[in-house]
Design goal:
13 helices; mainly alpha; disordered C terminus; two-stranded antiparallel ribbon
């Protein structure tokens, strides 16, 4: 018999495919038929953040200089090349793919493995394409909003896309030693959280319902990414749902 994980993956994929042909339609942040489950999972993730990740991130912010945090962000952004490059090609953007390749080569060999974003000085900005965006470009609708344990906001389509990102990513093939992978991931997560401490706190203070704020911000941002109406940003930090641009747009009632 198939495992529960396989059945869940099949169900999520079916939900995405059944809602196909709407990947470019305006976002519907209030389409949340799984809200009961999502709120429970959101509460769980938030408690892990408040009592686990946030205190560690504050300690990290106190100990690690800002320039080092920026360097780590650039490094992990550079590691996303195997995800960004093929998804640019799959989305029919060969020019962007070549720019991603050039940026990776410049930052790896001149920018000391990517710790320094030298490519930006040549006008090659970081990109954040992923498999979920590719599915959206292919006109597969996001399906229901979905909060994943530990990973946070997603959708039926983007949950499937995570499998594609894992298949493309460096960690799967090039960092095979478990403790290296876990350690690198932990550093990236803590560093990203540390760089968003104030943004998250401001979002919580300003929103009457933080769950609704996060859901709406995520849905709007994903739609803008698919339609290329939002900048690539700085990699993993910008991928965070607490992107300041979306935060400001939400408070202004932007529902583009």
């Amino acid at each position: 018999m198939p495992s529960r994980a396989a059945l869940l993956a099949a169900a999520v994929l079916a939900a995405a495919l059944l809602s196909a042909c709407a990947g470019h339609k305006p976002p519907q942040p209030d389409y949340d038929p799984w809200e009961g489950f999502n709120r429970k999972m959101f509460w769980f993730n938030d408690k892990l953040d408040v009592y686990g990740l946030e205190p560690v991130a504050r300690g990290w912010n106190f100990v690690v200089p800002n320039r080092v945090q920026h360097a780590l962000t650039h490094f992990f952004t550079n590691l996303r090349f195997p995800i960004v490059f093929p998804n640019n090609l799959l989305q029919g953007k060969p020019h962007a793919a070549l720019e991603a390749l050039a940026s990776f080569q410049i930052n790896t060999f001149i920018g000391l493995l990517g710790f320094f974003d030298v490519a930006s000085e040549f006008g090659l900005k970081p990109q954040d394409e992923d498999t979920g965006q590719t599915l959206g470009v292919w006109d597969i609708a996001p399906g229901p909003y979905l909060v994943l344990p530990l990973l946070g906001p997603s959708s039926a389509r983007d949950a499937v896309g995570l499998a594609g990102d894992a298949a493309f990513g460096f960690y799967t093939y090039f960092i095979t030693v478990p403790y290296v992978t876990i350690g690198a991931t932990a550093i990236n997560v803590v560093n990203t959280r540390a760089r968003n401490l104030e943004t998250v706190r401001n979002a919580k203070d300003a929103s009457l319902d933080f769950y609704t704020f996060v859901r709406n911000a995520y849905v709007q941002r994903r739609w803008k990414q698919i339609n290329d109406t939002i900048s690539g940003g700085t990699g993993l930090e910008e991928e965070n749902l607490y992107n300041e641009e979306i935060y400001e747009n939400y408070l202004e009632g932007d529902t583009q």
